[in-house]
Design a protein that fits this description.
This protein is mainly beta. The chain has one domain: Pnp Oxidase, Chain A (Roll), CATH 2.30.110. It has three helices and nine strands, in the order αβββββααββββ. The strands form two sheets. Strands 1, 2, 5, 6, 7, 8 and 9 form a seven-stranded antiparallel β-sheet that branches. Strand 6 and strand 7 form a beta hairpin. The two termini are 39 Å apart.
Length: 162
């Protein structure tokens, strides 16, 4: 016969993290223009070990997935200009020169905040570089939409502090 634990069957108060409570810090990009941040993902490969007629598995390489960010593009300070300054550290279009990874890789911080503004969770994305930047579309048919920039970054690894 199962024994019920009162701590498991009675109401327990909790406050869930909410998607709209975050602050993303990127050096050179104002935090208030960052509209959204995609999920932080991790993929771990498996390696098969064959022995007679059975297979066992051990962990292979770990890879942190890309993170997509959506930014507002205000007139001033220009969101496009802030992103392009980071892009120019990767590659300078005018001269064709590429930069050293020490210059273009940045550490990003994603703080998840609680209802009163306290930091309840902190992700640090280490060694991020821009994989793709999309500066949005312009159309005479859409007079009410704000201009957005989407940017995809690739971290070397991520750390969940708390």
């Amino acid at each position: 016969m199962a024994i019920l634990n009162p701590n498991e069957i009675f109401f327990t108060a909790f406050e869930p993290k909410q998607q709209n409570r975050f602050i993303m810090y990127v050096d050179g990009v104002p935090a208030y223009i960052i509209k959204g941040v995609g999920a932080i993902t991790l993929t771990q490969e498996s390696i098969a070990l064959n022995h007679i007629n059975v297979q066992r598995f051990v962990k292979g390489k770990s890879k942190w997935g890309t993170v997509q960010m959506t930014l507002f593009d205000p007139i001033t300070p220009s969101g496009a200009q802030a992103v392009m300054e980071w892009v120019r550290l990767h590659h300078e279009s005018v001269t064709g020169r590429d930069g050293y990874s020490d210059f273009y890789k940045k550490d990003l911080t994603l703080n998840v905040v609680g209802p009163v503004g306290d930091v309840v969770s902190e992700w640090i994305l280490k060694g991020c570089l821009i994989i793709e930047a999309n500066f949005g579309e312009y159309s005479y048919d859409n007079e009410s939409a704000a201009q957005n920039i989407t940017m995809t970054v690739q971290p070397d690894y991520c750390v969940l502090n708390f």
